[in-house]
Amino acid sequence: MSDPKQLAQVLSMADKALEKAALDLRSAHSAVQALKQQLTQLQNYRWDYVKQAQQQAGTTLQASHYQQYHHFIAKLDAAITQHIARVRQAEAAAQQRQTLWQQAHQRQQAIALLLEKNRTRAAALAEKRSQRELDEFALQQFVRRQR
Known about the structure:
By secondary structure, the chain is an all-alpha fold. Helix 1 (about 5-55) runs antiparallel to helix 2 (about 65-145). The protein has two helices and no strands.
């Protein structure tokens, strides 16, 4: 049987590790949400720019303006592609944090269960010892009365 104080310390350490893993997981999820929001803003900006350019399509555009428009759209598309990659990386990091949290949670639960089993076992042993002492005392009382 493990020392209950040592096991309680290990449980405390596991609790702290679980809290840190949960904090890291929340942080990773927040980063994913922020990146997704930025991506949506970038995509909306591109859409608005294209829509505005289409509205101006009826007017005469100089070749240089037309070229600048396509160049800018290409830059926006490249930025969107890069941002999508960043979102995917952040999602992968969040998934790793999820796995780490699950492992920390399982470890903490296992230690808590072991500690509870040890406490239950110790209580049962103490109860048996107490019952034996009471039985011994009762037997001694009986023997004294018989004399």
